[in-house]
Amino acid sequence: MEPLIITTALTGAETTREAQPNLPITPEEQAQTAKECFEAGSRVLHLHVRDDNGNPTQSLERFEAVINKVRETVPEMIIQMSTGGAVGESFEKRMAPLKLKPHMATLNAGSLNFGNEVFINAPLDIERLAKYFQEVNVAPEIEVYESGMIDIVARLVKKGLITHTPLHVQFVLGVPGGMSGKPKNLLYMAEHLKAEIPTATWGVAGVGRWQLPCAIMAIVMGGHVRVGFEDNIYYHKGIVADSNAQLVARIARIAKEYGRPLATPEQTKKILGL
User: Fold this and answer.
1) What values do phi and psi take at 13, rounded to 5?
2) How many domains does the chain have?
3) How far apart are CA 265 and CA 271, in angstroms?
4) Is position 24 within any domain?
5) Which residues contact 198 (CB under 8 A, 6 or more apart)?
6) What is the pLDDT of residue 246?
7) Whether residue 97 has pLDDT greater than 90
8) Could you tell me the residue range of the domain that residue 153 belongs to?
């Protein structure tokens, strides 16, 4: 079984300071959080950025400021930029930060109802973004929210629009409007991916109450794990987590108890083909 990669989605586009007072927003806060999470065992930073008022933004200047600060503070952390932005953001603005050449960035494989909104990823836009990943030579992390999106990814691979190998797929389970994080769903998603793209690696981001059970299953199944305030703000039911690093440390501890080692930065790069 491969060493475990823990990704931290430390801020996201939807979580607020009102709900999670410890949400890192400024470049300095995000960089310090990245360092704490790295020390707790995380190797990949899933990055959204906020403006000075705490609103989600796709500003190149803000992404650049955060990336530079993270690289200065914790140079071994692998930076994975979000191209999802906030729901409703224009596709051009979502694509633009790829010019900054992070190690990785996300490619959402389809549209879905997202709470009370619709997260739109039109087929032609997905293809356009896939081509742009090749143009700027950035590794994609494919985000899928239900099983049909795996079929979409498989078609893109067959058409030569996604060429990075090994391909890494992130199952995002538990979004209101998407597939839940029930154990049978994660089992099915992993089996379906293996059948369609046998060489792909996978991780899971369980949203809300699904974060911990999905993470534990992934540890046992040989997948990888994403935690953080983007997906879940609680440590226990009704108890707000102290920090992103607290959520990382819990997964690191469980993995150690199970006997699965955490990936080093070098191992992480090899597993993800970076």
Assistant:
1) -115, -10
2) 1
3) 10
4) yes
5) none
6) 98
7) no
8) 6-272
Residue 81's closest CA among 132, 119, 45, 33?
A: 45
Residue 49: give its domain's CATH number: 3.20.20.70
N-term to C-term CA, the chain? 19
Query: Residue 113: which H helix or E strand, with range?
Result: strand 112-114
Q: Closest Cα to residue 172, out of 100, 238, 227, 241?
A: 227
Three-class SS string for 54-108?
Answer: CCEECCHHHHHHHHHHHHHHCCCCEEEECCCCCCCCCHHHHHHHHHHCCCEEEEE
CA distance 157 to 151: 10
Report CA torsion sign: 263, 181, 91, 32: negative
Q: With H, G, I as helix, E, B as strand and everything else as coil, classify residue 7.
A: strand
What is the DSSP secondary structure assignment for residue 166, as one 8-state letter?
S
- Report which residue type is found at 256: K
Instruction: Evaluate whether residue 263 is within a structural domain.
Output: yes
| pLDDT greater than 90 at residue 169 | yes
Pick the closest to residue 57 from 21, 102, 27, 101 (CA basis). 27
239 touches 209 (CB < 8 A): no
Residue in 18, 16, 71, 22 with CA at minimum distance from that of residue 45 = 71
For residue 1, tell me if it sits in a domain: no
Statement: the pTM of the whole predicted model exceeds 0.90: yes
